[in-house]
Amino acid sequence: xxxxxxxxxxxxxxxxxxxxxxxxxxxxxxxxxxxxxxxxxxxxxxxxxxxxxxxxxxxxxxxxxxxxxxxxxxxxxxxxxxxxxxxxxxxxxxxxxxxxxxxxxxxxxxxxxxxxxxxxxxxxxxxxxxxxxxxxxxxxxxxxxxxxxxxxxxxxxxxxxxxxxxxxxxxxxxxxxxxxxxxxxxxxxxxxxxxxxxxxxxxxxxxxxxxxxxxxxxxxxxxxxxxxxxxxxxxxxxxxxxxxxxxxxxxxxxxxxxxxxxxxxxxx
Length: 268
Known about the structure:
2 strands; 77% helix; globular
């Protein structure tokens, strides 16, 4: 437990410090680094070829490119051309390397999915940061996902009986999911009191419940990938926490949903 709690607190503290004190430029640099590392973990799961260092990182950059390009102009209108660039570069890669790739269409689909799963979803964390009070909302969104994840684990372990998605993640339970929503709501409200005192509370409560559920979908989505590729953890760089992708799988889904909720609510 200590091996899990101490690194978790350190990660949370650094993320909170970045959002509270870090400049937009520093946030963009860290966001691109995180997305690149997540892309590398994803690629190691879905591509078991013995590729060279430069080819591997070329593909990582293709997957993470939408996030990096959007950092140069953090507007929603930047997203379509950024995705198009990644897509066309992947097409060029396949034109060049087609004869050397086994199960070509399968790998092509995995790369394109990676662009959307990591590059597209990760971009919304940058877009969210540049909204009014975006840093505060990122803190609240992160608190919701962390609270939901903790609640689902604790409640599921204590009283979990009915399986939620046994074919995808056998350890997740319906009781744990309910506990996750309650903990996520409590965390969202608690951090909003600290960082968003003028918030519309009805909007916050509804959003916290929705985002808790969306975070679980993000967690289950990574479980689909790991189960399909025979992988236990996406990586080992975070002691007791697996890899980068294991830590941000829920936030990758929560970020876009929170961003569009705020835009619909009038944030620009």
